[in-house]
Design goal:
The protein has 21 helices and 23 strands. It folds into 4 domains: about 100 residues, 2-Layer Sandwich (Histidine-containing Protein, Chain: A), CATH 3.30.1340; about 110 residues, Glucose Oxidase, domain 1 (3-Layer(bba) Sandwich); about 100 residues; about 260 residues, Phosphoenolpyruvate-binding domains (TIM Barrel, Alpha-Beta Barrel). A hairpin with a 5-residue loop joins strand 15 and strand 16. Strands 15, 16, 17, 18, 19, 20, 21, 22 and 23 form a 9-stranded mixed beta sheet that branches. The longest helix is centred in the middle third of the chain and has 24 residues. The protein is α/β, with parallel strands linked by helices and about 600 residues long. Helix 2 packs across helix 6. The structure holds phosphoenolpyruvate and magnesium ion. The site of phosphoenolpyruvate (PEP) has 10 residues, from strand 17 and helix 18. The site of phosphoenolpyruvate has 10 residues, from strand 17 and helix 18.
Length: about 600
């Protein structure tokens, strides 16, 4: 009966628009397909009259969806509604979180030697002999047959993905795993897989996904490795600049263990996974169509100006060495200065805190010189499965131990942020619907468990607890009373904890006088405040609100003038170099920014 009902259930559909400048590329596609596979219903994507199975990375990629393209997702069968909702939310989140990879601006140069221009992957300067990459293949006996090698490779990629789960590049391994599953499933021998990879590589050549060919080669190499193929590479003991056609993403780890000073690749793009990993490893690198050099010939790789200098003159070498030294001194200086206080020219100390999402970003923030955590976005702590009370408590405790001053925000799901284990109703305007603290109206048990875990993890520490999306005094009071009720229920003393709110819904701009009586602190969330002030969705593919608009600064001025409780700012605006002087002049004393922006934000403050 049940099966009968599902077989004949009506298909459900939704239109999804690609909003990321990078298009719907391999990594988000892999995450999407991976979630689609967890449902047994049929899930297809249709674009330009072509319909494909959404559970296969390869077929989904074949739609070549670019920014602005709208495709239809059709779901039919068991739990179709759940699947549709979860996939829609994940898609929006993937689009929102997909950072655009921008071309790096080049500095000017003047070298006497002959110069080849290229495109910068990762900035820096290196002076060393060029070393042309070559490998030797040795075939050993292997106990494994093709199927075992395929399963082992999939398992390895799964482990790499989970090992590096907190690393922002971990999704590269998920992408490769999904790719291998979708290509390998119908292959029975290595030569079939080789043919498939060749065919796919040919199809990708010259398209926007060209740079992903190295991922196809990488997964093939992984399977071959388990079939006994050993790739032997040797690198010089002295510093060198590696020159090669392309590298496989999996080779970057190995390269990091060598004396490599820089890398010149002939065939890749700044969007490739190899490029992403080179940037993450901080290896100065360039894409340039250059000749092979005589082994041992010194070259200058100036990945600031975006050039290679062949046969550099003594003068070129001296200049490059000076630049290198200067860069090293600058790096060392800002590295030490990042732990120093940020004091304005007039002697006003400004606190620079960090926005973090988990233990690894909190540790990174500490390393970068953060003085506290101004925003712990707790919704990113557990992205896949619902955590138990104990897991949550442990995670919060580890983060709380890192700093004295910590603000943790209760779950802010809804809008553009989805969690697969929290089911929210389908809404026409999710950004105006069940978001942030409103979740507690339909899922009080989730907020209860989270607050319980935070209280336990806080112990005696005066942690600050912040509620997102507060839009009225009553809403704040109800949520705080709920927190007090949770504390009473579990017999916990929370008198030392502070309760504050995000200012991100415009209605509260006019309620500050009453809110002053009930809140302990405020934090301005300009990302949402801007979208709600201008009625422009923050993920909108075409419209973008002016983040430096006087309207926004008037709102901030109003807040700083009216609030009688401490105010900080944790939206992106806090790290904007054009905004920092204005924010400080309005009286802002605490800025909370992403870990990577801390040193820079402190420098900007010192100039005001
Ligand atoms: C904000 O809205 O400015 C903010 C910091 O919160 P989030 O970006 O997590 O919504
Ligand atoms: Mg917000």
């Amino acid at each position: 009966m049940f099966l009968f009902k599902n077989l004949f259930s009506k298909p459900l559909s939704v239109q999804l628009t690609v909003t990321s400048n990078n298009g719907f590329h391999l990594r988000p596609v892999a995450q999407f397909a991976s979630l689609a596979k967890s449902f047994s219903c049929q899930i297809t994507a249709t674009f330009n009259n072509k319909s494909v199975d959404s559970k296969s990375v390869n077929t989904l990629l074949s739609l070549s969806l670019e920014k602005g393209d709208t495709f239809t997702l059709v779901v039919q069968g068991r739990k179709a509604d759940e699947a549709l909702e979860a996939l829609q939310r994940l898609f929006i989140t993937l689009m929102q979180n997909d950072k655009e990879i921008k071309q790096i601006d080049k500095t000017t140069y003047s070298y006497e030697g002959s110069v080849i221009e290229g495109e910068i992957i990762s900035e820096g300067i290196a002076i060393a002999p060029a070393y042309t990459y070559h490998t030797t293949e040795v075939q050993h006996q292997s106990e494994m047959d093709f199927n075992a090698a395929l399963s082992k490779s999939i398992e390895e990629l799964e482990t790499l993905y989970h090992d590096k789960e907190k690393d922002e590049n971990a999704s590269i391994y998920l992408a490769q795993k999904e790719l291998l599953i979708s290509l390998g499933t119908h292959c029975h021998t290595l030569s079939e897989l080789e043919e498939k990879v060749e065919e796919e590589s040919r199809n990708l050549a010259g398209t926007k996904l060209d740079a992903k060919i190295s991922d196809y080669q990488d997964i093939l190499q992984r399977v071959k490795k388990h079939l006994g193929l050993e790739i032997q590479v040797s690198f010089p003991d002295k510093p060198f600049i590696l020159l090669c056609k392309d590298l496989l993403p999996s080779e970057i780890d190995q390269l990091q263990q060598t004396n490599v000073g820089g890398v010149i690749l002939k065939e890749t793009s700044i969007h490739s996974h190899t490029a992403i990993l080179l940037r993450a490893a901080g290896i100065c690198s360039l894409i340039a169509d250059t000749q092979d050099y005589a082994e041992g010939e010194s070259v200058i790789l100036d990945a600031q100006a975006g050039v290679i200098v062949q046969a550099p003159s003594a003068h070129d070498l001296q200049k490059a060495r000076e630049q290198l030294e200067q860069a090293n001194v600058q790096k060392a200086l800002s590295a030490t200065k990042r732990f120093e206080a940020a004091i304005t020219q007039k002697g006003r100390p400004i606190k620079v805190f960090a926005n973090v999402a988990d233990l690894s970003t909190a540790k990174a923030a500490k390393e970068e010189g953060a003085e506290g955590i101004g925003l712990l976005r707790s919704e990113f702590l557990f992205k896949e499965v619902k955590p138990s009370l104990e897991t949550q408590q442990k995670a919060y405790k580890e983060i709380f131990e890192l700093f004295v001053d910590i603000t943790v925000r209760t779950l802010d799901v809804g809008g553009d942020k989805a969690l697969p284990y929290i089911h929210l109703p389908a809404e026409n305007n999710p950004f105006l619907g069940v978001r942030g603290v409103r979740l507690f109206r339909i899922h009080p048990e989730i907020l209860e468990e989270q607050l319980h875990a935070i209280f336990l993890a806080a112990g005696d520490k005066p942690i600050k607890i912040m509620f997102p999306m507060i839009s009225s005094v009553e809403e704040f009071m109800q949520t705080k009373s709920f927190a007090q009720h949770v504390a009473r229920k579990y017999q916990l003393d929370i008198s030392h904890l502070q309760f504050g709110m995000m200012i991100e819904v415009p209605s509260v701009l006019f309620l500050l006088e009453s809110l002053n009586d009930v809140v302990d602190f405020y934090s301005i969330g300009t990302n949402d405040l801007t979208q709600y002030l201008f009625a422009i969705e923050r993920t909108h593919p075409l419209l973008k609100a002016d983040e430096l608009s006087p309207a926004l600064f008037s709102a901030i001025e109003l807040i700083l003038d009216t609030a009688t409780k401490p105010v900080s700012i944790c939206g992106e605006l806090a790290a904007n170099k054009h905004a920092i002087p204005k924010l400080l002049n309005l009286g802002m004393e605490t800025l909370s920014v992403s870990p990577k922006s801390i040193a820079q934000t402190k420098e900007e403050i010192r100039d005001v």
